[in-house]
Each structure stands twice: as structure tokens, then as C-alpha cells.
Amino acid sequence: MSDRPPSNKPSPPARVSIAAPTGTRDLYPVELARRRWIEDQWRKVAVRHGFEEIDGPTFEQSELYSVKSGQGILNELFQTFSGKDPEQAKAAGAGQAPFALRPEFTPTLARMFAARAGNLPKPCKWFWQGPCFRAERPQRGRLREFWQWNCDVIGGSFGPDEPENSERAGLDAEVLAACAELLVLCGLGPESIKLRINDRAAAARLIASCGGAGREHEALVLLDRRAKSHPPEWAQQFAALGIDLARFDAEARAVSFDSPGFASLGQQIRGAGLEAWCVVDPNIARGLAYYTGMVFEVIVDGERAVAGGGRYDNLIELFGGPPTPACGFGMGDVVLSLVLQDKKLMPSDKEIARALGLRPDVFVISNGAPENDAALPGVLAGLRRAGLHARRSYKASKNIGKLLKDASDQGSLYAVILEDAGEVSVKDLDQNKQRDGRVRLEDLLAKPREVLPPGGLG
Ligand code: HAM
Q1: CA distance 411 to 395
Q2: How is the chain split among helix, strand and coil, in percent rounded to 5?
Q3: DSSP letter, residue 435
Q4: How far is the CA of 307 from the centre of ligand 1 (A)?
């Protein structure tokens, strides 16, 4: 036994190392800037196409998703308790928690529209972007937390069962046009990515005509899984519904935008100049249970879908609103980023910083004289108050060459060097060009945009 007196130093706290949950991302500045760039393209397209932005809660009452999202989504809900109400937690037991993190936005949108339907313009064109949560098995293109962009057109004066209605087809085409425009803005072309379009009613008729009458719903659920399944096993399950697969595939190949159920949409697609982007694909069924008509997915070969959507003419009524048709889509940031990176279409980090307005306008450097070192914080403050993005170096070095390198490494357009006698010299770092003569510091602070024009010294 040691006879040393017990130390009264407190023992250090136990260190913990907790990783981020699987399927989530920690976004450091460069990665967040890339996502912001994507969000920026989403917002630009939505605004250009006349959609207005809305937002809703990140979590909802769980029942919102049991109404009509389908089993796939229900199995992937992140269920939540308030933490204030242990009774609720006990009552739920192994059942459903009272709240869920939103796995998608469409039920929230339908709830919001239903609550104010009488006072809203019709059609209402809404867009939204934000995080969604699904307890999926993380894999390429699929995470547990991801960003989604939605554009939806709500309203229209056609009934649910009017086939080939041109107003409805026109609104469907508006939704497709916004989706395609985003792909254009990102530099993608119709040779590498397609909007694969189907119609649930036409698909159900095709299934029935191939022997699946009465089992259309199950067949659509299976069709949605076709691309992700082992083909022989899938074919067996499809055949078990009484459907002749060879016949289904042969008839599916013959379907086009001139076929019954697709002709009005085909006409609108041609009218909008979208024909190169769109193909009919009778294998597209969509996993969500609320779709009633046109459905589509945006697919690059070998990747999960970049986007998906369709028409859901009953959902708003289900949430207590008046019968209101609606159509829209959701696009995620995960697959879109993968595709843009693979195809080398993601702009460089420098270009992104410029596009987002994150590039420093000016970097202020002292020439090393003690009075200039002391003046530097005030100069920075003045430039910042005038609206410029102004930075300084935090390096200990007084070497002007090293400080200028720090300025250009941080991507600054200008460097301003505080010289003696209340003067500054100005350098355009893009062009490696020095402004002739010096400028009075007070003139820089009074009219910074004249001394430092946003487009460079020219
Ligand atoms: P969704 O097909 O479930 O549709 O999702 C749309 C897009 O969100 C997908 O194509 C994909 O890019 C992205 N996404 C979905 N799940 C994940 C995940 N686990 N990880 C990464 N990205 C994912 C809907 O959500 C519908 N509410 C869309 C809609 C709006 N329909 C009408 N209006």
C-alpha cells in the first residue's frame, strides 16, 4: 500500500468519443458550400417557374404519414416523443410514437393547403426545400438525413376521372418542365438523364389486360421494386399475381406518348419542348401510395433516382380540404451531387464561393509599422460596415509576400496594404496588378467601391 496522501486534484473528466449517427453527414465549409450551391440552383429554377416558397415543421404527428404515404415510408419513420410526457411514451409501448421526423414534405403540404384552401389562389404553385429523415439502410445515394427540393402545383378545374384532360396534362407538363430545367442549369443533358414517365391508371389497365385484374395494387408495389430486385425472384412474384410477364413487357415496349392515356401529356410535353427529356416507361410505379395519375422518376443509368413525383388528386381531400387535384415532385441532394461529381459538372470550390457571394472582396495587410498594425482592426471594421467582405491574416509573419499569398489562398479579389503617412496601396490579386499610385486611407473608407470596383481594376 502506498503511504502517499490522497491527492485532492479532481480526476479528469472521462473522455467520450461519439460519432455522428450512420447515414448523416457532417458538412464542413467546403461541403456545405456545395450543398448551398445546389439549393441555390433549386431556388432559382423554382422562382423562375413561378413557384412560391413555403415551409412547415420538421416533425409532424405520426398519423399524418399513416393516412396515405404507404408502408415503405412507415417502416422508415424516425419516431419521436416529446420527452415531457412519459405517459405518452408508455402508452405507445411498442406501437407508434406520437410524432415523427418528416420523411417527405407532401403530407405537410397537403395538410397546409387543406387548412387554408378557401383563401388560396388556384392553382397554387409552391416550392419547398429542407431536410428529410428516413431510417433507410445507408448506401450509395441513400442516407438517413438528406435535403429535398419539392415543386407542386395544387388545384385545377378537372375532375378525378376525366381521361386525357388537357388542363391537367398542361399542369403535369409544368411540373416536368421545372424538373428538367434544374437538370439544364446543372449542365446535364437528355442524352445522359431522362424523365421516365408512367400513368398509374394506364399501368393498372395494362396489368389487368395481362392477367392481373383485381391484383393491380400489389402489382404496382412490385413494379416499384423491379429495378432494385433480383430478376428471377422478382419475375416469380410478379407471375404469382397471375400476370404474364412476357406479354406485359412486350406491351410495355409498345407504349408511347401517342398511346391512350398518354396522348394529351405527350402533346403538352412537345409543346413545352421537353420531348428529348421524356420517355414513357410502364415500369415506373412509385412507392408512395397517394399517387393517382401521372408518375415519373428522373434516372441516370446505374444510380438511384435523382427525383420522383407525380399526380396525387385525393390527398388534400383526405386531409379535410375540398377535393383538389395536385401534382409535384421531390429531388434529393445526395444523388444529384453524386451525378454532378461523376460527370465533372460540379463547379470548383472557388467558382462556388463566387457564385454564392462568399468570396472576400478585400484582404487588409499592415506594412508592419506599429501604427498600421494598430489601425488595421479599425480599417477592417470600416470596410465591413460599408458592406464589403473584408478579411485579415492571422499569421504572425510580417512578410508582405507571405501575407499576400494568404490573401490569394483565401480567394480575395483585392489586397489593401496600409502604408505610412495614412496611405494605402491596392492590388488586384486576380490580375496580379497594382493600382497606380497610392490612395488616401480616408478616401478608401469614404468610397470603398470606387477604390475597389467589384469587377477588379480592369
Ligand atoms: P421520393 O421518391 O420518396 O418522393 O423522394 C424524392 C427524391 O428524394 C428521391 O428521388 C431521392 O433523390 C431523394 N431521396 C429519397 N429518399 C432518400 C434517401 N434516403 N437518401 C437520399 N435521398 C433520398 C417523395 O418524397 C415525394 N414526396 C415527392 C413528391 C412531391 N411527390 C409529389 N410532390
Answers
A1: 16
A2: 40, 20, 40
A3: P
A4: 6
Pocket test for ligand 1, best of 24, 112, 304, 316 (most atoms within 8 A of CB): 304
Across the range 183-208, mean pLDDT stands at 96
- For residue 52, give the amino acid letter: E
Cβ of residue 292 lying under 6 Å from some atom of ligand 1: no
Q: Which atom of ligand 1 is nearest to the CA of 76?
A: 19
What angle in degrees, to the nearest 10, is found between the helix axes of 231-240 and 245-254?
100
What's the confidence (pLDDT) of residue 257? 96
**CA-proximal residue: ligand 1, atom 24 (nearest):** 330
In sequence order, which residues have a C-beta less than 8 Å from that of residue 381 and are 6 or more positions away? Answer: none
Closest residue to atom 2 of ligand 1, CA basis: 308
Cα 103 to ligand 1 centre (Å) = 9
**Residue with CA closest to ligand 1 atom 26:** 330
Q: Residue 261: pLDDT band by 50, 70, 90 thresholds?
A: very high
- pLDDT 10s digits, 133-171: 999 999 999 999 999 999 999 999 988 778 889 999 999
Ligand 1 contacts CB of residue 306 (under 6 A): yes
pLDDT band (50, 70, 90) for residue 88: low
Query: Using one digit for the tens of pLDDT, what is the confidence trace for 290-317?
Result: 999 999 999 998 899 999 999 999 999 9
Tell me if 156 CB under 6 Å of ligand 1. Answer: no
- Ligand 1 pocket member 109 (CB < 6 A): no
Q: Could you tell me which residue, 399 or 84, shows the higher pLDDT? A: 399
- Distance separating alpha carbons of residues 351 and 199, to the nearest angstrom: 41
H helical segments located in 208-271: 216-225, 231-240, 245-254, 263-271
Please work out whether the CB of residue 143 comes within 6 Å of at least one atom of ligand 1. Answer: yes
Q: Is the peptide bond before 322 cis (omega within 30 degrees of 0)?
A: no
Residue 3 has a pLDDT of 57
- Ligand 1, pocket-test mutation among 54, 126, 145, 146, most atoms within 8 A of CB: 146
Burial label for 310, CB within 10 Å (0-12, 13-18, 19+), is: buried
Do 280 and 197 meet the contact criterion of CB atoms below 8 Å apart? yes
Atom of ligand 1 nearest to the CA of 73: 3
Sign for the CA dihedral angle at 445, 450, 455, 458 comes to negative
Residue whose C-alpha is closest to residue 153's, from 311, 383, 379: 311
Whose CA is closest to atom 17 on ligand 1?
142
CA distance 95 to 369: 71
Q: At what angle do helices 216-225 and 231-240 cross, to 10 degrees?
A: 180
